[in-house]
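Quick one, tokens below. Sequence please?
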């Protein structure tokens, strides 16, 4: 059985949720970097802050993306089952 996933429709339907999740990832990363700089664990320069910031954004964003992908697949399966 072949299932079609309309990614464009899913993104349009979930635009606000996606933007919210991106903002959460950015804010979370900023908070973590800020704490580590305040404690002296990381120096406040680009060489030390940027890799940590990117790592934290990727961790949070990857988790969000996997959750959204699972939701998209489940939604697609529900829609295809309705059609059959």
């Amino acid at each position: 059985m072949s299932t079609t996933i309309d990614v464009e429709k899913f993104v349009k339907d979930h635009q606000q949720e996606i933007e919210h999740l991106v903002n959460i990832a950015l804010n979370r990363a900023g908070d973590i970097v800020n704490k580590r700089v305040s404690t002296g664990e990381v120096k406040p320069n680009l060489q030390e802050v940027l890799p940590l910031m990117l790592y934290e954004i990727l961790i949070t964003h990857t988790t969000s993306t996997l959750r959204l992908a699972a939701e998209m697949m489940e939604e697609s399966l529900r829609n295809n089952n309705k059609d059959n």
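DSSP finds three helices and no strands in the chain. The mean pLDDT is 88.
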